[in-house]
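Example 5.3 — m7GpppX diphosphatase
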Amino acid sequence: MSDGNCQSDVLEPPCAKKIKKDEQNENGVTESVLELKDFIPSKILNNNTNRKTVCVQGNFKDKSGVALVILEKNAFKEEELDNKGYFSVESGLKTFFQNDIYGNFECYPNPNINGVKTTIIYPATDKHIAKFSQQELHIIQETPECYEKLTLPHLEKEQFNLQWVYNILEGKSEQDRVVHNNKCDKEGFVLVPDLKWDGLTKETLYLLAIVRQRGIKSLRDLDGTHLPLLKRIRDEGKKAIFDKYKVRGSQLRIYFHYQPSFYHLHIHFTYLRHEAPGIYAEKSHLLDTVINNIEMMSDYYKKATLPFTIREMDTLFDVYETNGYVQKIKSDNIELINK
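Solution (predicted structure tokens):
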């Protein structure tokens, strides 16, 4: 529990360790390791050739429930571009063709630097399946009235379970990944690597600041009373990231998503060189712009019309379609795996 003082802890994560099957972690919670050799794929939900990611739906042998496996090619680490990494004696080349000064090859580097980032969601819900599926997108212009009558009642009923967020805030999970921890009840937050980041590769740096206050769902709830919290997150977050990763504040993109993927206030910190998902105008709201808007008008985000993207499998889409704001586009089915 917090003592109410705005004290901060910067925690250095220990070396990663593998948890044995059905072993208790440091918090006494029993965890079991899921093995990819036991995964039985059934459907490709999304194959993004631009981001080099694929999401596969299936199930694990001898386990009930649906599972999602997300595979992502890692970005190159600059420290591995030397004769101990990609240019070592262990790297092999397969020749496709050579013509004069040009050659086209496929490189087979040391497996230790050729891993594939893997995320497993198990058991996955229908909301997870919708979130990771390839879908048609639409933009909604959400007025304050639409928020109160359509969006808010829906999200209060249908939002994702937030227990994983509370586990982080209460020190029950992911404590070895915490980069910064301000324990103040009102202005405190925890800074952790985002699920999409491996926590190591500077080129794809991506962290989340999760506020300790409960009940602040999104941008819509912010007003002048939250300015000290927002400025603390900005300033302490920048310092913590520079101290640990040597990335300056001027090289960070600090922003909110609207709509967010989960409705407990959080702020994204990404490296400017990294084109992270959701950084574009229809989704992203820079923290400094949000602070400036609230300083000009305390209830700005309660009065503003806010655009957001919505996908056709989102249950919120059905709400807006029923009320005549958007119409579904017929699309082809996603490829099934017939193996």
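Remark. DSSP finds seven helices and 17 strands in the chain.
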